Amino acid sequence: EPEVTQTPSHQVTQMGQEVILRCVPISNHLYFYWYRQILGQKVEFLVSFYNNEISEKSEIFDDQFSVERPDGSNFTLKIRSTKLEDSAMYFCASMGGRASYNEQFFGPGTRLTVL
Amino acid sequence: AQKVTQAQTEISVVEKEDVTLDCVYETRDTTYYLFWYKQPPSGELVFLIRRNSFDEQNEISGRYSWNFQKSTSSFNFTITASQVVDSAVYFCALSEAQGNNRLAFGKGNQVVVIP
Q1: Which residues of chain A neighbour B105 with C-beta distances below 8 Å?
Q2: What share of chain A is helix, strand, coil (3-state, %, to 5)?
Q3: What count of other Cβ atoms lies within 10 Å of the Cβ of residue A115?
Q4: What is the pLDDT of residue A101?
């Protein structure tokens, strides 16, 4: 069964460093999402991406964040200069299309630790 | 704006007891989708169920059942005859048909099943 994959599973970085979190969505899906979950808290929407551009972003998704679909298969989230409060689990999700009843398929997550 | 409330934070039950998790939602959209996800200690999000706003039929899947009441904007989840493997955080989530289908999650219910 097709699935969303994410790499790495765990990333440790120093404050101020740039990180890139990678996701491979399900191959025929059209909509892509990033969510964040700070430890012990709820899952929060960051950004949605469709037709090679951002379709919606939350207030969390400030200028430090960017997303890209560089090669038609990967979907990346970049944090330019990490802060301690960026430590969280980051989930990528993809959805097939409007007829897919809004079902998003989640990857296993990348745990980001900023020291 | 979409909002999901899960008032109970941690619920402890003895194995074989039933447990019901409450979910109340808010939306201005007439077409929307409701979801429940399970997050075991390993951290991934496991999809349990999707229900659209036009389908108020309750559903049973094994030991899991869901009660959708549009009149009270609630989508409650019951685990019957709980088992230790049910210990996890359970999230209720909502997405609206309009817009970009982003999921709004509740804060989650930590379920602890005591053997």
Answers
A1: 42-44
A2: 5, 50, 45
A3: 10
A4: 62
Instruction: Tell me how close the Cα of A60 comes to any Cα of chain B, in angstroms.
Output: 14
A6 to chain B: which residues are within 8 Å by CB?
A: none
Q: Are strands A10-13 and A110-114 parallel, antiparallel or unpaired?
A: parallel
Contact yes or no for B33 and A42 at CB 8 A: no
Substitution target from A102, A103, A113 for chain B, most B beta carbons within 10 A: A102
Contact between B111 and B13 (Cβ < 8 Å) = yes
For the stretch A73-96, pLDDT in tens is: 899 999 999 999 999 999 999 988
8 Å CB contact of B103 and A45:
yes
Q: Does A109 touch chain B (CB under 8 A)?
A: yes
Distance of CA B25 to the CA centre of its chain: 11
Contacts of A111 in chain B (CB under 8 A): 43
Residue B16, beta-bridge partner list:
none
Q: Does A57 touch chain B (CB under 8 A)?
A: no
Q: Three-state DSSP class for A54?
A: strand
CB contact under 8 A, A43 and B99: no
Secondary structure E strands in chain A: 5-7, 10-13, 19-24, 31-37, 43-50, 53-57, 65-68, 75-79, 88-95, 105-106, 110-114
Kindly give, in sequence order, each residue whose CB lies less than 8 Å from that of residue A39, ignoring residues fewer than 6 positions away: A87, A88, A89
CA distance A67 to A29: 17
Q: What percentage of chain A exceeds 90 in pLDDT?
A: 79
